[in-house]
Design goal:
Blueprint: H1 8-15, H2 20-26, H3 31-36, H4 40-49, E1 54-62, E2 69-74, E3 79-80, E4 82-87, E5 94-95, E6 103-106, E7 111-115, E8 120-123, E9 141-148, E10 153-160, E11 168-173, E12 181-182, E13 190-191, E14 196-198, E15 201-207, E16 216-222, E17 227-232, H5 235-238, E18 245-250, E19 253-258, E20 269-277, E21 280-288, H6 290-299, E22 303-308, E23 314-318, E24 321-322, E25 327-333, E26 338-345, E27 359-360, E28 364-369
Parallel strand pairs: 3-26
Antiparallel strand pairs: 1-2, 1-28, 2-4, 5-6, 6-7, 7-8, 9-10, 10-11, 11-12, 13-15, 14-15, 15-16, 16-17, 18-19, 19-20, 20-21, 22-23, 23-25, 24-27, 25-26
Amino acid sequence: METRSIPPDLILEILAKLPLKSVIRFRCVSKFCNSSVITPSFVKSHTTNFPIKPIGLLITCSSRLQSGQMFFYADYNGGFAVPLLTVPPRFSRYTTQSLNGLLCLDFGICVQICNPSTRQAITLPFVVPVSSPSASSTYFCVNSFGFDPVTEQYKVLNSWKVPGKEPEYRVFTLGTDESWRFVDGGPCYYPKRESICIGGIIYFRCWTNWNKSSRAVLVAFDVGKETFQVIEIPDEISSDDENLTDLIAFAGNPAIVCYDQIYDDEDSSLLIVWTVKDSIWYKNGLVMPSDLQELEDEQAQLYYVAGTIQTGELLLAPRRVSKKQHFYVLYFDVLKNVFRRVEISGLPDYVHQFNDFSCIDTVTVSNFEENILSFA
């Protein structure tokens, strides 16, 4: 009996219509499948059938003794957290929010890019050699992650300021660059370990002086044009304690959340959200329900605003995972003034031996998007 093989084009057409998890399994079937599903043309075809969009929460925390970084997926409605990926060898100084399902792990002169969907991580070339004299001063050496929707390129921006020296800014383009490139025009300020990317623009705050009590500004980096813009921050928040503010994306614009405002009613707190659009700042006061205060007292820790979810609700999460407490995330509808919480189980519950509060180090929560992009 004559047997006929399936034409390669038809195989790829079938694979492009399968969910991401199935495509990943088919990479093990043959060399053809493995090499074909990582090509730009297949990625584009699959993304057309399965557009990148938030499907749940991505939770990041450290493994035991900070020997690695763990990534979990959880449904928006809570439930058991599913392990996705563990990246050694250590916990990063700072991890960006999920950008189309990808994350940037900042180790100063070392950077890792992770795709929890494909269980992959790559380490970029060192910003400078480890033996370089400047490698000993990396406190203000910060890496931010961005995506240009026009060229569909992902880039890492390295901002580095050493007291007494001119700042240095470098860019690494994924899939194109083999080494870091210098870019000009960056401000002579000290970058903070935070960033968000909205519409092809990376936003991050900088201190105007090495002393963190100095005034802060918002820096906007155009990922496509590789140009900088400095946006002045209102005096009311420009010198706030960094632990009392967070930079988030809110209603499609960068925003700074302030936590130190107390409402007249002792049972409620006033959350101030400063939103900037076209360099103009808008102040919004949100009265948080008393349920939040009760939960914070019960958990013995404060919640921070991690961003928003696809419904437009604010996402609040604890800064640590505790063995002694349940892990809840909170959603707040700013229009209806409705507050709800969901419980997530399955996260690490061991005691961090360096912490008297029985917590492992910082946990971050953001939206999770599936992305088929592979690092080969």
